[in-house]
Amino acid sequence: MPGPFKTEAVVLRSIRFGEADRVLHLYTAERGRLGAVAKGVRRPRSRFGGRLEPFFRTRLVLHEGRGELCTVTAAETVHAHPALRERRDALERAAEACDAVLRLFDAAEPNRPAFHLLCRELALLDSEPAAATRAHSLAFRLKLALAAGFLPELAACAACGDPEDLTGFSASAGGVVCAGCEASSFPFGKEAHDFLTAALGRPLAEAPEALEPALRQADRAIAETLEHHAHVRLRRVA
To answer: Based on C-alpha coordinates, what's the Rg of the chain?
Structure first.
């Protein structure tokens, strides 16, 4: 029903609109993905100050009208993540994380695990310089795939169920595959498999590391899974 409502949100993206406004892409705890306009936010004396910048976690009061965009009427900062803005690597990882959420969750439907995972990722990038690695970003992306319902099969061959001799990965089959079912797969080594299973089983703050060849295979496995099953193409993790 149209009218005002409160929600907590992460600002995924901000786009200039008109002379002084901005259109915001938000991911919210209660309503999932939302679009909103912040009127006058670019004016020097805006009542919103700098509280609606990308990567901010905020409490918002929004007004829902008949159009596609809500209107921001009040904003309170929960976490500004100032430290990540001072490090280029952390800033790039934060942009990757927000872009992944923006592309993968495009509906106004709540997904609290995805919201809290994003909040956790931004907090880690803000507080832990060591979190701005390719391995950590891939661990986040794998957990995000789980929250979206697109986790690949990692325990046994996705084609025949055999838990042994898992040497390939096939997005069309749904995950790792054995030597006898590898016709449509790409080579997937033990280190890449171990990395994904460890990343899935550990808290995000304890994401495992791996050598570059294994990370490339893991990145490809996650990317092709989401392309095939979610029809979403994410930027490869650099």
So the answer is: 20
Distance of alpha carbon 54 from alpha carbon 27, whole angstroms = 11
Going from N- to C-terminal start, the domains of the chain cover: 3-79, 149-238
Structure tokens at 147: 């929250």
Q: Is 38:20 a contact under the CB 8 Å cutoff?
A: no
26 sits in which H/E element? strand 21-28
Per-residue pLDDT tens digits for 156-186: 999 999 999 999 999 999 999 999 998 889 9
- Strand duo 70-79 + 166-170: pairing: unpaired
- Alpha-carbon distance 229 to 236, whole Å? 17
**Residue 229: phi, psi to the nearest 5?**
-100, -35
Angle at CA of residue 189, ends 186 and 193, nearest 5°? 105
Give the closest residue to 127 by CA, choosing from 54, 210, 205, 203: 205
Architecture of domain 3-79: Beta Barrel (2.40)
Averaged pLDDT of the chain: 93
State whether residue 65 is helix, strand or coil: coil
